Amino acid sequence: MHPVETAARRLSAYDQYLDPQRRSEIRERADALAGERIAHVNTTADGGGVAEILHALVPLSADVGVDVDWYVMDAPDGFYEVTKTIHNGLQGDHTPITGEMRETYRRVTRENATALEERYDAIVLHDPQSLGMAPVLADRFPDATLLWRCHIDPTNAAQPYLEFVESFLDPIDRTIVSHPAYAEALDDADAAIVHPAIDPLTEKNRPLEEVPADLEGGSPDEYPFDDDRPLVVQVSRFDPWKDPLGVVEAYRRVREAGSDVQLVLAGGMPDDDPEGIEIHREVAAETADDDDVYLLTDLPDVGINVLQRCADVAVQKSLREGFALTVSETLWKETPVVGTNVGGIPLQIEDGENGYLVDPDDIGATADRLARLLADDGLRARLGKRGRETVRDRFLLPRLLEEYLTLLEEGISR
């Protein structure tokens, strides 16, 4: 494993998003953790929502006086191929899990757990990739509190994969999930429910007029789409569970109905997701003859900001979804979202109030809601305003910081 350096953050910078009670709670929880050492472990420092959250959560925790470190696992490509298969299995894919896959997973997680040299009072393991470290960590550091943060939706998991993951849970003192149904699927009535959150001060989420003017990717003029024509955007990894081909089909139906709409599919290529390149190729081949479909990869954060603000409507057509922070990011910019009624998406979208919810397999309904919003400026404005209010009330970083500090205090004091 190797440590990740993070840029400094100051809680005082979030004053406009902090009421006095939350500020006081954060300070009290941080004071209670004085002298304790905390570590977070995941598999990548760049790409994906987990890394993005940790780049904010870790330095903010440090700013309020908590001694916290962040480590990324060292692993060969074969490990990530195995963990991507495990990820897919937990979301319902039935590809067999082989003995070789199990051994690769155990070996790499064991090696990483053995490589941890520092002693910590609490260690937060993020997602299934790092969970396998728990038995070795428990043996090496019996006094440490171990927490597992499951960011994905296991409610439709293939049984062999669910059983494999559950075999590592005994040493875990507390599981953290995004939805009560996830706790039920893991048969863990004591699991804590914590919703992810966005950082309103990053280049991805702050107003574009507050972003340095010379920052690369910060102007709509740098992108190939026509900002004067209707635009639909989906921001997500190139992943079969995000159903990019379903998004393309919905877009085509909107076009066939007479709209001059364009489509952007934008996503990163995280180090721990080897499947993304192949899915990107499939979508590129499917849309090669359409000059109004744009596939954009590995954009800077400010580029995602530009896309979500330029979009007339965003779509999140996930078939399975742990939470989808891209929904909150987009709602924050007052852009309405058509999302599927799966996982954490309905925690963020209230149908007809700040966006629309559709069944994940209903391409016709997706196209209908997109067309409805594209045709009605007033409707987009009303839903967009309510969307920003939803995020401000429920899905901003200071709330997440408070909840993590509370869980850490509770876990260490047990």
UniProtKB/TrEMBL annotation:
It comes from Natronococcus occultus SP4. Keywords: Carbohydrate metabolism, Glucose metabolism, Glycosyltransferase, Transferase. Belongs to the glycosyltransferase group 1 family. Glycosyltransferase 4 subfamily. It holds the Pfam family Glycos_transf_1. Homodimer. InterPro entries: Glyco_trans_1, Trehalose_Metab_GTase, TreT_GT1. GO terms for biological process: glucose metabolic process. This is Glycosyltransferase. Gene3D superfamilies: Glycogen Phosphorylase B (3.40.50.2000). The keyword Translocase does not apply. Residues 222-389 form the Glycosyl transferase family domain. One of its GO terms (molecular function) is trehalose synthase activity. The keyword Transcription regulation does not apply. Its EC number is 2.4.1.245. Residues 40-183 form the Trehalose synthase N-terminal domain.
